[in-house]
Design goal:
alpha/beta; Immunoglobulin-like; TIM Barrel; 3 domains; 8-stranded parallel β-barrel; 5-stranded antiparallel β-sheet; 13 helices; 28 strands; 24% helix; binds 2-acetamido-2-deoxy-beta-D-glucopyranose; cation binding
């Protein structure tokens, strides 16, 4: 298998604001969308006694232990001829425990307790479903609802392990309140240690959470949690949807991680992959009942040609049950606080974004190319999550710029809270790579940072796991002989512009020096680049510490002034000659000087509220690797002199990055 990065394959959008002609208003489409959603929701409610019940199906499917220790097994396998349960408990007898066929392709099996009243299947023992197909095959499968799967060292295939611990983890801390401003730290638990091996949930809890807290993040987004047999897929080729990856520890250890994060006031989002599924059959969902369809579309519609994976049939009743219950499972059992939905652009269009660009024209977002089943699925998911959990946060990874993505479902939107502003990291990469310092275009930077749909919240980030800005930048910056202080500026400009949240990935915290690569055949299964050297900050590598300090202080300053939650920035200066950008947000004035050599004194900047201003954060600070040339005790007083459309202005001083 190849490494498949899930988003880089799509062309990037231009999220153009206010460019759309009125006659193409999306309201017509929104009401159609809403009609379809309403119909599906009503059907669910009528047939299943409400969506609460329907989405708790993890309490009836897979394995359930009743209070009297009877075990009930239930599966949906519409194409199967017969189903048996085999495992350690019956000496791997392939025929002794048949399931009974029920309506609509469902199967059930009841196993009474042993004579000593303990359950017939012990905690931590292995199981398999034996599926007999009409073609006469006998297939050994993992239940789609398996809560825990492990792999024996030498084995390629995962095993289904019955997880029913005698002392399940009990959450001690309530979910923290939804933060006013989201500062997201994106994390991959497996790489989050300096050692050349897969790091554990417990290590993360004890060694990494305190750092994230210290840096001032209030949210972590965990990737690669849903079990994925292929480590190098970054977690995007999911094989067991209800199982937390056993590479990093047990389900109970992940629960503890989330509980401890909550105790620190940090909310936790799951990077949920419902856009596609691994093609694996023996330890994946593919061909569970022996057929090509089951959870997926049959034929070409069921395959993603670039990702080499299977695509869900979102119109299937049991598919909805499975996926919606999966969201409930992570919310209820693990107490996640919300989701980043991966691969939303691929779901929205029949062409999956392959070979199509998005210019912002409405015709690209509505019409026959749009997959209505996926739209309805996403609307249902957002409606249910936001109805049941008031503070639940949902983020869409959409590069297409689909309008109405972040509008409420009742208004015909898809109901996400935020979209990821995918164009921002790309812009930084382009600017850094392609332009000489003196050619940096201020208008272009401002346009990228502010280019978004009105009223829809977006998440800005300087880098994410699949846009490896920092690593590229390290190479460029070291070539140019610039100091790390440069990053500070880059972080802040991304942080403070028009986004509502900010995101940082484990791998570039404090300017991590190395590339990321997971162990795979091509690199001799090496863990060398699948680890993060947190220890660098603690040793005397001054520069890492400096970046760490800036990141932390940026949070502290944000915490005080709250610009992420404030209305968008007012840009008063973007001067191409001076290479200066000035904007105001939450009564804070941000001044950026991108000029390679010019420093400025007595530079007039506009101010909204009149009065006294002081320097609060300065990338020239010695603690960030700068020269400490500015006196922070200086007070700047405004004059009632109108400037760049603001009523007041003052003379300021700032330096170049030289
Ligand atoms: C069940 O089937 C598997 C695969 O054919 C076989 O290896 C195993 O020995 C069988 N179990 C018993 C108890 O016969
Ligand atoms: C998707 O599921 C629906 C409902 O079960 C079914 O009618 C349809 O044939 C399936 N589509 C494909 C392409 O498998
Ligand atoms: C992998 O290991 C083999 C044998 O030790 C060696 O010949 C080869 O060069 C290594 N390849 C890489 C990519 O390190
Ligand atoms: C990779 C990993 O799990 N590393 C460490 C986890 O924490 C324990 C105790 O602090 C260490 O001994 C491991 O080396
Ligand atoms: C989430 C978090 O830890 N935020 C911190 C940011 O910095 C301020 C000021 O030091 C802290 O009070 C916050 O707790």
């Amino acid at each position: 298998m190849a490494i498949i990065l899930h988003t880089v394959l799509l062309s990037h959008s231009k999220l153009l604001l206010g460019k759309f002609p009125h006659r193409d208003s999306p309201s017509h489409y929104s009401s159609l969308q809403y009609g379809l959603f309403k119909k599906q929701l009503t059907l669910l409610e009528e047939a299943e006694g409400g969506f609460d019940q329907f989405t708790r199906s993890y309490k009836s499917y897979g394995v359930q232990r009743m209070p009297d220790n009877n075990l009930v097994f239930k599966e949906w396998a519409p194409a199967a001829e017969a189903l048996f349960l085999t495992g350690d408990f019956n000496g791997w007898d392939n025929f002794s425990h048949p399931y009974t066929k029920k309506e609509f392709g469902k199967w059930e099996l009841h196993i009474p307790p042993k004579e000593d009243k303990t359950p017939a299947v012990a905690h931590n023992s292995k199981l398999k479903v034996v599926v007999h197909t009409s073609a006469g095959e006998r297939l050994f499968r993992i239940s789609p609802w398996a809560k825990y799967v492990t792999r024996h060292e030498k084995s390629v295939i995962y095993d289904w392990v019955h997880w029913d611990p005698p002392q399940p983890y009990i959450h001690k801390h309530p979910r923290p309140q939804k933060p006013r401003s989201l500062r997201i730290y994106e994390s991959h638990v497996g790489i989050a240690s300096p050692e050349g091996k897969v790091a554990s949930y417990s290590n993360f809890t004890h060694n990494v959470l305190p750092r994230i807290k210290d840096l001032g993040y209030n949210c972590i987004q965990l990737m690669a949690i849903m079990e994925h047999a292929y480590y190098a897929s970054f977690g995007y080729q999911v094989t067991s949807f209800f199982a937390a990856s056993s590479r990093c520890g047990t389900p109970e250890e992940l629960k503890e991680l989330i509980d401890v994060a909550h105790s620190l006031g940090i909310i936790v989002l799951l990077d949920v992959v419902h856009s596609h599924a691994s093609k694996n059959t023996e330890d994946g969902l593919n061909r569970f009942d022996g057929s090509d369809s089951c959870f997926f579309h049959s034929g070409p519609r069921g395959e993603h040609s670039l990702w080499d994976s299977r695509l869900f049939n979102y119109s299937g009743w049991e598919v909805l049950r499975f996926l919606l219950s999966n969201l409930r499972w992570w919310m209820e059992e693990y107490r996640f606080d919300g989701f980043r939905f991966d691969g939303v652009s691929s779901m929205l269009y029949h062409h999956h974004g392959i070979g199509s660009g998005f210019s912002g024209d409405y015709a690209e977002y509505f019409g026959l190319q749009v997959d209505e089943d996926s739209l309805v699925y996403l609307m249902l998911a957002n409606h249910i999550l936001h109805t049941l959990y008031e503070d639940c946060i949902t983020i869409a990874e959409d590069v297409s710029g689909m309008p109405t993505l972040c509008c409420p479902v009742q208004e015909g939107g898809l109901g996400f809270d935020y979209r990821l502003a995918m164009a921002i990291p790309d812009k930084w990469i382009q600017i850094l790579k392609e332009f000489k310092d003196e050619d940096w275009n201020m208008g272009n930077i401002v346009f990228t940072m502010t280019n978004r749909r009105y009223g829809e919240k977006c998440i800005a980030y300087a880098e994410s796991h699949d846009q490896v800005l920092l690593w590229d930048t390290v190479q460029i910056v070291s070539k140019k002989g610039m100091e790390f202080v440069f990053f500070c500026v880059l972080f802040l400009v991304t942080h403070a512009f028009n986004s509502e949240t900010y995101i940082m990935f484990t791998w570039y915290m404090f300017g991590h020096p190395e590339w990321l690569d997971f162990p795979r055949v091509g690199n001799n299964e090496s863990y060398h680049y699948a680890r993060r050297q947190f220890n660098l900050v603690d040793t005397d590598h001054l520069r890492y510490w400096q970046l760490y300090a800036f990141d932390r202080d940026m949070n502290r300053t944000e915490d005080k002034y709250g610009w992420l939650a404030a209305s968008p920035a007012y840009i008063s200066v973007k001067h191409e000659g001076d290479k200066v950008i000035v904007f105001e947000r939450a009564n804070v004035i941000f001044i950026f000087n991108f000029h390679p050599t010019n420093s400025y004194s007595n530079y007039r900047v506009a101010a909204g509220p009149p009065g006294k201003y002081k320097i609060k954060l300065d990338s020239d600070g010695i603690q960030y690797g700068g020269h400490g040339r500015l006196d922070h005790n200086t007070e700047f007083f405004t004059e009632p002199m109108e400037f760049n459309n603001l009523p007041n202005s003052m003379l300021s001083v700032f330096l170049c990055l030289c």
